Model the fold of this input.
Amino acid sequence: MIVNLNDEAYNLKAQLGGEEHIIWVGTAGRGIVFRTIDWFMIPFSLLWGGFAIVWEFIAITAGAPLFFALFGLPFVLVGLFLIVGRFAWDARRRKHTLYALTNKRLISRTGVKTHNISSLNLSEVKNVGLSLKPDGRGTITLYNYTLGVNVSKALSGFQIFGGGSPNTLELIDDAQEVYNKINETLNKPGA
Done:
């Protein structure tokens, strides 16, 4: 869990190259998040899990051979993960995600015990997208290709297990302000 952003920013300084400095540091939003894909995934997971649990119940209570009871067990586990586990996994991942915007790149650090660090050079960014909520939180996506059509917007909710792309600042506070900082940095000469 990320406790102090100043300490985290100091720890990230080891990742910086020459003439690179941190402009902004933040964390991903916390808690359970419902995404567009959940309009499909929730009913699907309830059907999957319900069928698997009924299968297991019938196999066990009807005295079916052990093979039938064991055969249904992985389906029950997958069903339980799809119903509740994926929300817990996504919330835990975001709880341990830190973002840093420098004058040269976007850095994402994830992981609980082992930190996985990835980055995207701002010189590769062609477009920047912002999805803003009324409370000021939002998600910023940096695209390293030019969009002919807004395919990414149509597919943005199609994340069964949550985001986590190094190109995405997910559910950050003051998203509009950070979006403006990214655009200012991209528009500076030499960026």
Remarks:
- Strands lie at 22-27, 98-102, 105-110, 116-121, 127-132, 138-143, 168-172.
- Residues 148-163 have pLDDT under 50 and may be disordered.
- The helical segments are 5-12, 38-61, 66-95, 151-155, 175-187.
